[in-house]
Structure formats: structure tokens, C-alpha cells
Amino acid sequence: MKKIYIILFLMIITLSGCQNNGTIVRYSDDLSIKQDGIIYLVDSFYENGSNLTFRISIENTTDESQILKLEDLFITRLSNEVGYPVNCRIFDNEVTVSSKSKQNLSCVVVLPTSIEDEHYKLTFNQFVFNLFEKK
């Protein structure tokens, strides 16, 4: 009887690990995501020494003003899974985007190597923007 419970427990763990966690992934050839009337676009990359500057553009296509939280904003170096915090100069990680308008956030992060030399990914909320091409 204990074996049956153990097998059922292992099956539940396996099945729960297979569920979609809602993560949306993009690669460098298309760094835009549209969700619930909001378009997120990551572009305008500029490297100056160890500083990487880029833009996160948030466009509200709805008829209502939106307050959006950008949580856990990090760029992660895939070779060692180290995360580097991104500074977008926003208060309390919230961005207000008026109806039918766009908000551009200038962001900066200090990285140990170039995004041209190694694979990095930008993450926030349930979004993953891989700063390299999909193979």
C-alpha cells in the first residue's frame, strides 16, 4: 500500500512540473510581447565598457490607463546563472501608461562581458527576453 502512495506522489510531482507556468519567451530576432492590450518591446542596445543601456518600450493599446509593475527586473548570464539587477529609474517598480500611448524606459545594467560574447537573458514578471538568437 505504501508503494502505491509513493508512486502516486511521484506522479503528482512529475505532472505538476510539466504544467505551463505562464512564462513567455522571446529571442533577439523578435523582442516584443503583446499581452492584454499592452505591447512590451526591448530594443536600442548600446554597450559602453561594462555598462549595457537599452530601452523597454511599453505601449498601451487599450482605452484605459494602466499601472504596470515590473518585478524582478534582471539580466542573467547563462554561463553561470548569475543575475544582475537592472536600473530603469522607475519608482516602486511601477509604470503608468495612459490609454493609447507609449512609455519608454531607459535601462542600464553593469555586466562582466559583452552581450555579443556571451548569452544573456532579460527577465521581468513572466517575460523572458533572450538577448541572443534561437538556434
Describe the protein in words.
13% of the residues lie in helices and 47% in strands. By secondary structure, the protein is mainly beta. The strands form 3 sheets. The protein has a 5-stranded mixed β-sheet, with no helix packed on it. Strands 2-3-4-9 form a 4-stranded antiparallel β-sheet, with no helix packed on it. Strand 10 and strand 11 form a beta hairpin. This is DUF4352 domain-containing protein.
Summarize the structure.
It contains 1 helix and 11 strands, in the order H-E-E-E-E-E-E-E-E-E-E-E.
List the main descriptive attributes of the protein structure presented here:
135 residues, mainly beta, disordered N terminus, four-stranded antiparallel β-sheet
Number of strands: 11
What class would the helix/strand composition place it in?
Answer: mainly beta
Terminal CA distance reads 47 Å
SSE pattern, N- to C-terminal: HEEEEEEEEEEE
Bin the helical content. Answer: 10-25%
Radius of gyration: 18 Å
Strand content: over 45%
User: Numbering strands along the chain, what is their spatial order in the largest sheet?
Assistant: 1-11-10-6-7
Report the biggest beta sheet as strand number plus sense, adding barrel if it closes.
5 strands, mixed
Uncertain regions spanning at least 5 consecutive residues: 3-20
Mean pLDDT over the full residue set:
86
* Discrete helix count: 1
Shape: globular
Protein name: DUF4352 domain-containing protein
Organism: Paracholeplasma manati
Q: Helix and strand layout, with pairings?
A:
Layout: H1 2-18, E1 24-26, E2 32-35, E3 38-48, E4 51-60, E5 66-69, E6 74-77, E7 82-85, E8 94-97, E9 101-110, E10 120-124, E11 127-130
Parallel strand pairs: 1-11
Antiparallel strand pairs: 2-3, 3-4, 4-9, 5-8, 6-7, 6-10, 10-11
